[in-house]
Amino acid sequence: MITNVFIIVEQSLVALFTLIMLAKYAHVFYKFKLFNLQPNSGYFVRFITFIGWYIGFAMIALLPMDMLFVEEQEATKTTLENMWTIYYFTSFSMCWIVFPYLCEYVSVGEFTVTSQNSNDFSNNFLGFVIALSNAWGLFQIIIFLGYGIVTVPQACFKHTGVEKLYKYQMFKISYYETNYERSQVHMEQLIRDTLTLKNCMRSNDQNHFYLKIVLSNCPEEALTYVVPYDSREQIQLDYIRGDYESLVQLNKDCKWAALDLVRKEVQYEQELENAFYYEDLYRNQQTSADYRIYSRLFKLRQGKFGRCRDKTYFIWNIIIMPKLYNIIGLIAIALSLQILAGEMIILLELKYSLLSLIPQTTIGQIISNVYSLILLFYLTFCIYYGCFNVKFCSFYELHPRNQTDSFSLLYSAFLLTRLASSLCINFLKIIHFEGTIFANVIGAMDPIPLIGKEFQNFFPITLLVLCIFNYFNVWSKFMYFIGLDEYTFSEVYNEDLVPDGELLSKIGNNTLQIQ
């Protein structure tokens, strides 16, 4: 009975954590008209996102309870079995029916509900077939994990010096400002094509009405200064026909371009705010004689206690934090190597695991439980870090301060829900832990050729290759070299952009002073 109460309390805390995360990222939907959502649709999207996020977090939080209480009485096993059954089959149905349908529905270019539904089904049919195999989720785990276990330690070491962090932030605002300008140009080009087509059609033409719908999805500010082409021949070949199919594609492209423009603007503004902060840290590190941070972003505190707090803030951010990140980075490297070793053990089909090295005593059992919990947390963090930071998946982005659009919320819930069960499977394989209720509920992995059992035992070698590629940033450098940097996994640091970033930061600071 006490065990059941403990499980319920844990899951309640997960629900509270999910609510806090949703409040951080959720957009004010009734003001967001990009996908023509009705006011009540915002609450529906938020509710569906909450369910997806909650299941994604709850399944991972429930796994340690399953491992800890594996020898418990029948009542506890029944509770765990019921919870796993509800979570797993709810996540399965939402991953492969609800989320794909909603994500596709809000992003298609069709002009009628019937056309949107038929297009949605045809686009997701292949995904429904692939979903029959848990190996597909494990394959995604390897992709994101291969990025995360390399990038997380690197991200820690980027914070080990204020000067290093300052230069990297200056590079980032220059990089994101370029991306923002590129999105503006693309959006203006689409608007120009739409206006030109609209001028070439009669007002009583049905396609003329559809073009008005296309323009309604474009930024109002851009519509005030963009002018059409002089002739129809200047329109892009994809839309020059002006028939229904080309207008559907134009409508979809305009939706995505407008959404991408909003994301790039938000991303640039948030990185610019971070640049102001890191610039203040960098300047005060060199010039501050009284161990206080002088900044236009916040005021210094008054009084003896206030000065003490300011000095503590200075010491913490400029002296302690870099050293702390250095220690965390070393710990992250050790955990990354342990996860990589665990995956290689799966590949080589060895009989021992990482936990077998710990003595089987009472204290050893406690150490094993703590170690498993830390390893599970780090594995989850690396996968979700990769999931939300791989630039190749930048068609969705999560932005704090309520700046996340509805599609990104839905797609993030889609990913969290889809990856949760596969993450649990992978973790149990790494530590060679058997006898859990979760394993009994999910059953044996499917034996489908190429994506079944044989592939599950083979894909750890893919993780090793991805780690090498990500460590040397091979893919991103190659894409950047051939001019396709929009397909890179992450931005490639270029010190030549640091002066441009410093200039942008100076302009932004002057604008902030004027306001």
Automatic annotation (TrEMBL):
Superkingdom to which the source organism belongs: Eukaryota
Membrane topology reported for the UniProt record: Multi-pass membrane protein
Keyword hit for Transcription regulation: no
Membrane-crossing segments per the record: 5-23, 43-63, 84-102, 125-150, 324-346, 366-388, 409-428, 455-472
InterPro entries documented for this protein: GPCR-associated_LMBR1 (IPR051584), LMBR1-like_membr_prot (IPR006876)
Keywords noted in UniProt: Membrane, Transmembrane, Transmembrane helix
Annotated compartments: Membrane
Main location: membrane
Family the entry assigns: Belongs to the LIMR family.
Name of the protein described by the UniProt record: Uncharacterized protein
